[in-house]
Amino acid sequence: MQFRIDAQDGAARAATIQTAHSVIQTPVFMPVGTVGAVKALDALDLQNHLSPQIILGNTYHLYLRPGDEIVKAMGGLHGFTRFPKSFLTDSGGFQAFSLSDNVKIEEDGITFRSHIDGSKHHFTPQKVLDIQYNLGSDIMMILDDLVALPATRERIRESIERTTRWAQRSIDYHRRKQMEGIGVDQNIFAIIQGGTDKEFRKISATELCALDFDGFAIGGLSVGEANREMYDTVEWTTPFMPTDKPRYLMGVGTPEDLVENVERGVDMFDCVMPTRNARNGTLFTSFGKVTIKAARYATDEEPIDPECGCIVCRTYSRAYLRHLFRAKELTYFRLATIHNLYYYLDLMRQMREAILEGKFAEFKRKFYRKRDNG
Questions:
Q1: Is 350 annotated as a binding residue?
Q2: What is the 3-state composition of the chain as percent helix, strand, coil, each rounded to the nearest 5?
Q3: Is 197 one of the catalytic residues?
Q4: For residues 252 and 135, what is the distance between their CA atoms, to the nearest angstrom?
Q5: What CATH number is attached to the domain comprising 151?
Q6: Residue 144, annotated as binding a ligand
Q7: What pLDDT does residue 269 have?
Q8: Distance, CA of 232 to chain centre
Q9: How many Å apart are CA 360 and CA 78, to the nearest integer?
Q10: 260 vs 12: CA distance, rounded Å
Q11: Do 6 and 152 fall into the same domain?
């Protein structure tokens, strides 16, 4: 993987990431395709209407169904899904933690039961990499010991210490496998933990960033803490991260979260919010959210967002989208998802342009002014 900073405006960065499958311009939002598909869309929708250079898949879900060996036999994620650009795969640790009963965290890994059939499984730092080698993702996340907040200082300390030990095992294993010709074109990211505690974030970031990873993520945020706590934690953490490698904030978030954290030096984001909210009737626009089921849109001939250039806004009215939603027509899910993801991807494009022009502060003022007026 190649990484180049193209411009910087304050802490905000515009960069270019080159993987084996695509050129990714940052700041970038990665649509979530948990089981190898962005919900309601196929690879042609992504290519023809959205053009993301990278999407996210999940190791836990793909391991359980259809199974990573099947994905490998079908040509990896790229051959199986027919999405030709880059994939990032999460390690699955969060899903094992959040979806399973009786999760047991041990020194060598995580034991959990499948949310599908109750079968018992064990993830180790090496095991999740083996799964991701089979998936063929361009960026692989390592297994970390995440903590639900609030948590005691003792539990957070245990988490960051175990995360560092697992990170060392992961990077050592990955470099050995690459020497064997496995995962040569795959990249590996570590995940900084520490809750909202500045001392622990510094320790975790310092220890992990001393290791030979291709990039680094900030994990364990957007889990119920106040937005200001999240922003402060990111602002505190990024200075301890390398300037010459990608910075990824996991599971974040709202359009406001993206703007605030780009300003604080983050390059990469993912979140289910645009796709999940689309299915639930909430559409994102330059002037704020639209709840499409509202009665006032019943005869509204305007597009969802007059400033949006997506195929949905260029073709359909709010009235039609409202009708589809209320009729529970499946077409609604596709159209709403296309619009919301287009809005997110275009927001990142606008931020990149502002950084390249040295006008990020001006962009941010206009962004909030539109929302206040809307």
A1: no
A2: 45, 20, 35
A3: no
A4: 24
A5: 3.20.20.105
A6: yes
A7: 98
A8: 20
A9: 35
A10: 10
A11: yes
Q: Which residue has the tokens 């510094």?
A: 202
Is 220 labeled as ligand-binding?
yes
Omega before residue 374 within 30° of 0, cis: no
Catalytic residue among 90, 257, 267, 346: 90
Mean pLDDT of 249-273: 97
195 assigned to a ligand binding site: no
Last residue in a domain, options 216, 238, 270 = 270
Torsion of CA 57, 63, 69, 73, to 10 degrees: -30
| 93 is an annotated ligand-binding site residue | yes
Task: Give the span between the Cα atoms of 37 and 46, in whole angstroms.
Answer: 10
Instruction: Confirm whether 372 is a catalytic residue.
Output: no
Tell whether 118 is in a known binding site. Answer: no
- pLDDT tens-digit map of 354-368: 999 999 999 999 999
Range of the structural domain that residue 331 is part of: 278-373
Exposure letters 204-221 (e unless 16+ CB within 10 A, then b): bbebbeeeebbbbbbbbb
Name the burial class of residue 180, with classes exposed (0-12), middle (13-18) and buried (19+) by CB atoms within 10 angstroms of its CB.
Answer: exposed
| C-alpha 373, offset from chain centre | 30
Burial of 123 (0-12, 13-18, 19+ CB in 10 A): buried
Phi/psi at 233 (nearest 5 deg)?
-65, -40
Q: Is 209 annotated as a binding residue?
A: no
Number of domains in the chain: 2
Q: Is 374 annotated in some ligand binding site?
A: no
- Residue finishing a domain among 212, 237, 270: 270
Measured CA to CA in angstroms, residue 174 lies from 71, 81, 109, 127 at distances of: 20, 25, 17, 11
| Cα 203 to chain centroid, rounded | 24
Catalytic residue among 138, 270, 305, 346: 270
What pLDDT is stored for residue 224 in this prediction?
77
What whole-number percentage of the chain has pLDDT above 90? Answer: 92
DSSP state letter for 361: H
CB burial of 323-361 (b: ≥16 within 10 Å; e: otherwise) equals bbbeeeeeebbbbbbbbbbbbbbbbbebbbebbeeeebe
